[in-house]
Design a protein that fits this description.
The structure is a single chain. The protein is an alpha+beta fold and 245 residues long. It is 45% helix and 14% strand. It is built from eight helices and seven strands, in the order E-E-E-H-H-E-E-H-H-H-H-E-E-H-H. The strands form three sheets. A three-stranded antiparallel sheet has the order 1-2-3. The chain has a two-stranded antiparallel ribbon with strand order 4-5. Strands 6-7 form a two-stranded antiparallel ribbon. Helix 1 packs parallel to helix 7. The longest helix has 23 residues.
Length: 245
């Protein structure tokens, strides 16, 4: 985000005793989510300029506006539901770790620990992309930032490669008659799983135990065993059963 980015952006810090609420603003429309009378979660969409959605302002357009508003509410609730439980089955996870033939085309692997894979799944999780979809150019800019590069260092062809493997694995789909893409429910679940496990569990657990000594030295051996113990401890805490190899 830069000074030229349109719109207003806010961060609200929730403290104890304060009722949390979520406000999503897009041009002259807004989604607001809050606890009504501390008993129920209320989600409501307000459209102040119907022409932003290609709809007129006459009363006869109310059914179409209602459909748009209900669809926005439903999509937000679906995203929150998937975010709450983004676990992947072992089969789904393993299918992403190696190249596959899908619909007669080769789908490159989306390996969990790969920097490019982590960057692209982080990029597609931008809220504006979830709500409105994204183009090659949109995603390329965010993808470059996450790799520590400039947007002009990532070619459109390179980004097309990333979009293609996401699409073949069923993580994104192309919007009809457009050059925009959006996450599927499986894509959202996968992206959340990849980013959360990597950032919250794997990286913090491994960072203190990464060997820094030359290979073959007694110090390296001690550090390797420390790393192994850290992984075993993490698996025990996460209730992940050990597998014989």
């Amino acid at each position: 985000m830069s000074r030229r980015t349109p719109g207003r952006f806010r961060t609200r810090v929730i403290t104890e005793g304060v009722t949390p609420s979520l406000h999503v603003d897009d041009k002259r429309s807004r989604i607001k989510q809050y606890h009504k009378e501390a008993q129920a979660l209320r989600t409501e969409t307000t459209i102040n300029d119907t022409r932003e959605f290609g709809v007129g302002r006459l009363l006869k357009n109310l059914p179409e506006l209602r459909r748009i508003g209900c669809a926005a509410n439903r999509r937000l609730l679906e995203i929150e539901q998937i975010s709450h439980d983004c676990a992947l089955g072992d089969d789904a996870f393993q299918h992403l770790q190696k190249p596959r033939q899908i619909e007669g085309q080769r789908a490159p692997a989306l390996r969990f620990g790969d920097a490019n894979a982590q960057a692209v799944v982080n990029a597609v999780l931008m809220f504006v992309f979830i709500a409105r979809g994204f183009t090659n150019k949109d995603l390329r800019q965010q993808f470059a930032v996450l790799l520590g590069k400039r947007a002009d260092e990532i070619s459109p062809g390179r980004m097309s490669y990333e979009l293609r493997r996401l699409r073949l694995h069923g993580l994104i789909e192309r919007l009809p008659k457009t050059h925009r893409y959006r996450l599927t429910d499986e894509g959202l679940r996968t992206a959340l799983f990849y980013t959360r496990v990597y950032a919250r569990i794997l990286r913090p657990a491994m960072a203190p135990a990464v060997p820094a000594a030359p290979a073959g030295s007694p110090q390296a051996q001690r550090q390797f065993h420390a790393a192994e113990a850290a992984v075993n401890s993490w698996c025990a805490q996460a209730h992940i059963a050990a597998q014989e190899t």
